[in-house]
Amino acid sequence: MIEINTIATAELNVSKVAVSLNSAQEFGMQFSVVGWGKFKNAEGEDVWGTNPLVSTLLNVTGPTWDAWGSDKSDAIYIGDLALAQLGLQRDPDAVIEVEETPVVAPAEESDDAEEASDGSEEATEEAAE
């Protein structure tokens, strides 16, 4: 899923757009485009609406399919098409959060560890008898 923070307009109070693949065929793809807005709650705080304000489909076929190249990442290209369809712009001040997964090297078993495990199994078997 591609999530894009946007600048809400007077015509469309959408502050976030989510784009996800809906279907694909030879030489084309269809994406689901959903947008949410922010509202002031009773305490005056900005909160996200619980229901999307806009829900539509984006078809990437023909000229838009042919123009899909390597000059932009897939997420940027599809996101730009979705925003153009809705008449919205990216929020340049939005903080992009990237969740990084730490890389952990696999544990190496040493000969000492194998011997210790063999010895503990024998000790466990002897104790059970």
Strand content: 25-35%
**Pattern of helices and strands:** EEEEEEHHEH
Count of helical segments?
A: 3
Helical fraction equals 25-40%
**Count of extended strands:** 7
Which structural traits does this protein have?
five-stranded antiparallel β-sheet; 129 residues; alpha+beta; two-stranded antiparallel ribbon
Your description of this structure?
The chain is an alpha+beta fold and 129 residues long. The chain has one domain (2-97). Helices cover 28% and strands 32% of the residues. The chain is built from three helices and seven strands, in the order E-E-E-E-E-E-H-H-E-H. A five-stranded antiparallel beta sheet has the order 6-3-2-1-7. Strand 4 and strand 5 form a beta hairpin. The radius of gyration is 26 Å and the shape is elongated.
Structure, briefly:
With 129 residues, this protein is α+β, with helices and mostly antiparallel strands. It has helices spanning 62-66, 74-86, 111-128; strands at residues 2-7, 16-25, 28-36, 38-40, 46-48, 54-61, 89-90. It has one domain.
